[in-house]
Amino acid sequence: MTVLVTGGAGYIGSHTCLELLQAGKDVLVLDNFANSSAESLKRVQELAGKELKFVEGDIRDRALLDSLFSENDIESVVHFAGLKAVGESTEIPLDYFDNNVSGTVTLLQAMKAAQVFRFVFSSSATVYGDPHTVPILESFPLSVTNPYGRTKLMVEDVCRDLAASDERWSIALLRYFNPAGAHPSGRIGEQPNGIPNNLVPYITQVAIGQREALNVFGDDYDTPDGTGVRDYLHVVDLAIGHLCALQKVSKQTGCVAYNLGTGTGYSVLDMVKAFEKASGKAIAYNITARRPGDIACCYADPTFAEAELGWKAEKTLDQMMADSWRWQSQNPNGFAPS
Ligand code: NAD
Ligand code: WQD
Q1: Which residues form the pocket of ligand 2, taking CB atoms under 6 Å from any ligand atom?
Q2: Options 3.40.50.1110, 3.40.50.10490, 3.40.50.720, 3.30.465.10; which CATH number does 2-180+233-262+300-313 get?
Q3: Lesser CB count within 10 Å: N end or C end of the chain?
């Protein structure tokens, strides 16, 4: 039986494909390379010592999806494919609704036609908006502040309505907090397009001299050192969370959301210090204005995922930083030849 992984060539998808192969699963990846390359999948297969099947194509292509379902013995779908840049989503919202919402609806239609009802979806802590308190529980009110976040909330709503309409569906909505780090081999990791939006890739690019200094977006938040606090989660822990979710959707039906985070918040300056310790590199930084739309503090209460999925983040911040640095220093151009 095969797991279809959409967006499997991307950052979180590639790490998840590796864990799936290592757990003995057959894997079929569908990716259009909008934000990735085939090199990541080549390396995943090298690391696993096993092959996966790969199809270059788009989740919005219904005919292609139908042929994938009819030609392969697919039992479940892990759905990563989508666009993920918050700032860009405010400039080209239609592309985000088309890829993330219409694309997911097309995928779910093809699944229904093929009678495949097990679905694991990449949601995001962004669906909690600006929470009144932390740590954040799955039962907290949902709200969003940008088109990207809205696409995640819309897909969550689609999934809830779908599961309510037909009890054969079994859906896990995985609300990731802040994924970071890379595989400890240094062979796969995150390759941001252009200037990184996210903190950790920006720090690693400063460390290799691709950027001059980190801009710390505000030091006047109501947090211990005034900089923003987030729940950074090692991407390998996150990948393993998908295996636990797949187990769960094979045993129960309905649509359930799970926080995937560590439960610990670190500030921007904590992250800079941790990176300096792991890499031995000094990180130049400037305090600048707050980034519009940022919130002060966001971290998970991960106890529901532990109780229900048997999943808990195991890796430390030091490991996250050491692995990010290994990936960045060994692959200064990401997956492109140097
Ligand atoms: P990524 O960009 O590295 O991976 C997404 C993959 O999907 C890429 O390989 C891209 O080429 C592919 N893709 C995009 N549109 C497609 C389409 N229409 N058809 C087929 N393939 C398509 O991103 P990631 O960081 O690995 O994120 C994976 C998922 O997790 C995304 O849905 C993202 O929104 C979500 N997520 C990411 C984060 C994060 O901080 N990285 C946090 C929360 C949620
Ligand atoms: C973390 C902290 C910044 C960059 C985003 C999306 C969210 C999710 C994960 C997909 C904040 C500060 C950052 C920099 C900085 N993605 N920072 N200088 O904003 O928590 O979440 O990625 O679902 O939807 O919004 O992550 O890594 O951008 O920022 O000071 O150059 O680092 O202000 O406090 P964020 P991030």
Answers
A1: 84, 86, 124, 126, 178, 197-199, 202, 214-217, 228, 230, 268, 291, 294
A2: 3.40.50.720
A3: C
Mean pLDDT across the chain:
98
Task: Tell whether the model's pLDDT for residue 33 goes beyond 90.
Answer: yes
pLDDT tens for residues 196-205?
A: 999 999 999 9
- For the stretch 76-85, what's the b/e string if a residue is b when 16 or more beta carbons lie within 10 angstroms of its beta carbon? bbbbbbbbbb
Query: Is residue 148 among the annotated active site residues?
Result: yes
Protein residue closest via CA to atom 29 of ligand 1? 80
d(CA 261, CA 114): 33
Task: Choose among 310, 332, 218, 319: nearest CA to 274.
Answer: 319
DSSP H/E element including 214: strand 214-217
The residue whose CA is least distant from atom 17 of ligand 2 is 199
Single pTM value for the model: 0.99
Q: pLDDT tens digit string along 172-203?
A: 999 999 999 999 999 999 999 899 999 999 99
pLDDT tier, 337 (very low <50, low <70, confident <90, very high otherwise): confident
Q: What percent of the chain has pLDDT over 90?
A: 99
Residue 36 has pLDDT above 90, yes or no: yes
Q: Rounded to 5 degrees, what angle do the CA atoms 42, 48, 52 make?
A: 55
- Give the tokens for residue 28: 């079929």
Nearest residue by C-alpha to atom 31 in ligand 1: 80
Domain ranges of the chain: 2-180+233-262+300-313
Which of 11, 96, 128, 148 is an active site residue?
Answer: 148
